[in-house]
Structures are given as C-alpha cells and as structure tokens.
C-alpha cells in the first residue's frame, strides 16, 4: 500500500511541475485575441508620393496603404470612364520574395464600371522596404513613392511656394491651424470674408495620416464672392512637402497638358507646397 501511495505522490508531483512549466510558457505567448500577426513583411505600412493615376494630366498625389492581411487602399483621384475620389480598394492576389530581398506584390483593384481598363497591378517593394515601384497605365503607375512613417507629421503650419508667388494661386500660401481650419494669402494679401475685411476667410480641413482633404479658393471667378474648390493632398515621407491636386477642375487654377500658356504654374508638374 505504501508503494502505491508513493507512486501516486510521485505522479502528482510530476504532473504539478509540468503544469507549472506549461503555465509559465503560456504567459510568454501572445494572446491571439489581442495580438495579431501581420501576414506579410510589408503589412500595415503606407507609401506616399506621386503616381500616374487614371487619365492623368500630371502625376497625382497618392497614398497606398497595406492592411494587416490582403487589403489595400489607394487614395487619390482616379478617373477612367468613372471618377473616384479618395479610397480605391484592392486585394493582394500574389506575393513573391526576390533573390535580392525585394518583394513583388500583385494587386487587383476593385473598379466597378471600369472593368475594361482593369488589370492586375504588379509592384516591387525594395529589400529595405523604403520604396515601392511598378504598376501600369491607366490604373496606378508609381512615379516616386516612399515609405511613410507610422507617426505621421502634423500638417499644422504655413505651406507655400515662396519663390513662385504666381504658381497654384488657389493654395499658394495656405495656413493649417490646430483647430482644423485654414486661411489663405494670395497676391501677398490675406483673404478676408467679403462682408468683413477684418475676419480671415476660413475653411475646414481634415488630416488622416498622410492624407489631407481641404479647400482651395478662387476669389476671381465671381468677385466679390469666393469660389470654394475641393482639393486633396498627400504628405511626402519626410513631412516637408505637400503634393496637392484639385478634385474639381471647374474653377481650379492649375495648368494642364491642354493649357496653351503656363498661367498657374509649369505644365505636367504636380503642384506642391513647402512647409515654412
């Protein structure tokens, strides 16, 4: 009887020890409900800069975001037979690792109504993950795209073209304040409300990481009224340049490839502002 008791005691001690060891091991593991593992080495990253997007007349601002799994969003103004403002969603269909450490990613964008133009877009992420290249016209072909930091720089401050006060007059000198509003300087003078020349004209803006929705203004279309023009912008990877474009070209003062003269800036060049 004593031998049986000793055997039982030994079994209990060994079982308890294993249970304690197992519990300690579990504490070092990630909680699957709280800690998600990225599917790819480039998951949850963002690339910003310039790309030829849709029926472009110059390279447009672009933010490309990869989700945790296969989701992708391209944020720009893509115009084919249908125009799209903001997010164009896509899905990763193939990923391959190259011999030099580069990663080839195939994306199919969701473009209902433009299926005849759509084709899988093949992009290459550099081995150091700092740049992305590739793509094909007319969807999204990269021009100059770099990795954007996870902690996005603030847009708050004054942005302008100080050496070219006649370029991109809708937004040539624009100040973004911490309260989510803008004010403007054009022709060296602040823009005021028509009914009160002591109150600066203000419009709202919204920043989402590198992505910016704001307004350009044109006081010359129907003076003394001010025409408000929807604009969007994308911050460069270093946060020092804001690439901009108009969502509405009816009153926007931006040159295009069809412009006879470069009234509002150089043709075939993306409008950009510099943080002062």
TrEMBL record:
Residues 1-22 form the signal peptide. The keyword Signal applies. Keywords: Signal. This is WD40 repeat protein.
């Amino acid at each position: 009887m004593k031998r049986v008791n000793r055997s039982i005691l030994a079994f209990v001690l060994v079982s308890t020890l294993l249970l304690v060891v197992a519990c300690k091991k579990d504490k070092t593991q990630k909680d699957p409900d709280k800690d998600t593992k990225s599917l790819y080495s480039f998951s949850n990253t963002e690339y910003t800069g310039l790309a030829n997007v849709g029926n472009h007349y110059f390279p447009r601002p672009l933010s490309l975001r990869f989700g945790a799994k296969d989701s992708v969003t391209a944020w720009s103004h893509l115009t084919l037979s249908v125009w799209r403002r903001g997010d164009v969603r896509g899905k990763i269909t193939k990923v391959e690792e190259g011999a030099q450490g580069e990663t080839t990613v195939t994306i199919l964008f969701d473009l209902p109504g433009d299926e005849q133009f759509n084709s899988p877009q093949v992009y290459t992420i550099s081995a150091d993950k700092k740049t992305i290249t590739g793509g094909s016209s007319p969807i999204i072909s990269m021009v100059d795209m770099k990795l954007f930091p996870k902690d996005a720089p603030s847009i708050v401050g004054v942005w302008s073209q100080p050496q070219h006060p006649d370029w991109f007059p809708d937004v040539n000198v624009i100040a973004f304040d911490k309260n989510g509003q803008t004010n403007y300087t054009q022709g060296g003078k602040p823009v005021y409300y028509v009914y009160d020349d002591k109150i600066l004209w203000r419009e709202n803006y919204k920043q989402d990481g590198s992505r910016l929705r704001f307004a350009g203004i044109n006081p010359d279309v129907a003076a003394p009224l001010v025409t408000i023009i929807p604009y969007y912008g994308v911050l460069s990877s270093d946060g020092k340049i804001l690439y901009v474009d108009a969502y509405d070209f009816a009153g926007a003062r931006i040159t295009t490839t069809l412009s006879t003269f470069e009234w509002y800036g150089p043709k075939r060049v993306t409008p950009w502002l510099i943080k002062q």
